[in-house]
Amino acid sequence: MQKKINTISGIEVLGVYRERRFSPGKISEDAAILDATLSRLSDAAYRVRALPPEDLQDMTPKPDLVLSMAQSVRALDFLDGWHKSGVKIINSVQSVRSCYRKALIRCLQDAGIPMPPSRIVKTGELERR
Q1: Most exposed of 8, 17, 85, 99 (fewest Cβ within 10 Å)?
Q2: Which residues is 14 bridged to in the sheet?
Q3: Collapsed DSSP state (helix, strand, coil) of residue 90
Q4: C-alpha distances out from residue 9 to 19, 45, 89, 110, 112, Å
């Protein structure tokens, strides 16, 4: 039996790197994860490219699919607009926002999941201590 090769050359996948500020000490490791994934997709005949989230607004035309590691409010707002226009987003805007600390703490508490006491403080408040 002959193995079928998946040729999807018409589909463009855009990889969006995580913002450097969200990867302290792990910038190259985070980028390597996305690069390796895009490489495998390219091997499977997808058209791929990658860019930092700061360059999203310059991206035209819209890709068919986005594989995003972005976390900033600005990038997520932009990707949400694409999602609403029909672009498929992997690591959806909603899932990333659900992992923001306030949302995650509230979700865990609402689900009755035991967790240590938590408190959110502004960075400047920590610097004064």
Answers
A1: 85
A2: 49, 66
A3: strand
A4: 29, 5, 19, 45, 47
